[in-house]
Amino acid sequence: MATKDVPPRWDRKMQQRLARGEAAALGELYDRFASLVHNLAHRVLGDEKAADTVTREVFAHVWEHPESYDPRQGPLRSWVAGVAHRLAVQRLRDCETAALPREAGAAEELERKVRRASVAARADFIVHSMPAPLRAALELAYFQRRDYRQTAVDLGVTEDEARRRLRLGLQLLSTAHDAGAPPGYGGAV
Q: Which is nearest to 125 in space by CA: 32, 36, 11?
């Protein structure tokens, strides 16, 4: 069993390969995390082209600064997601600041929009990161409007297990509204 201070072997090896400048490592990292990065950026920005740009920027940052990943802070996936989130939010702020007139409430409106986008991106990250059984239960309840009894039948589990999965999934999802850190962990980009 891995301890909190020891990242998965793949994460450590990937960081070492990137630090050595192995282009194949960047390709592997891109294959593994590009959809995550793009989805997070699109969720924040609501624009396909802007999400494409942020995706390129994230992988350029990873290539140029592999040492900025600290394995003790968490998995490489979380770090990449955090970089994506920060770059997407920064792009949103830059675009909105340029587009908004210099009114008294413009800055507050921009911050509300950034907070909404951040919560949405965090919720998306949480849903895609949670274990498949929890995600399946939430998808049945939310998208197919199943109650816990129907969810239990559809999943082939007891009603108590269906309720447990739904409760835990919703508890995880509720953390998206926390004012704390975005997906990933802190640190400068």
A: 36
Q: How far apart are CA 162 and CA 150, in angstroms?
A: 9
Integer Cα distance of 25 and 93 in angstroms: 32
In terms of Cα–Cα distance, which of 116, 107, 165, 158 is closest to 136?
165
CB 137 within 8 A of CB 151: yes
Asked if the model's pLDDT at residue 1 lies above 60, the reply is no
Name the token pair of 117: 């986008």
H-assigned helices in the chain: 9-19, 23-45, 48-64, 76-99, 106-129, 132-143, 148-155, 159-174
Residue 166 backbone phi and psi in degrees, to 5: -65, -45
Question: In whole angstroms, what is the distance from residue 24 CA to residue 11 CA?
Answer: 15
- Which is higher by pLDDT, 117 or 147? 147
pLDDT in tens, 4-61: 444 578 888 999 999 998 888 999 999 999 999 999 999 888 889 999 999 999 999 9
Contact yes or no for 122/182 (Cβ under 8 A): yes
pLDDT at position 188? 39
CA distance 173 to 170: 5
Main-chain dihedrals φ then ψ at residue 142, nearest 5 degrees: -85, -55
Which residues, 6 or more positions from 16, have their beta carbon under 8 angstroms from its beta carbon? none
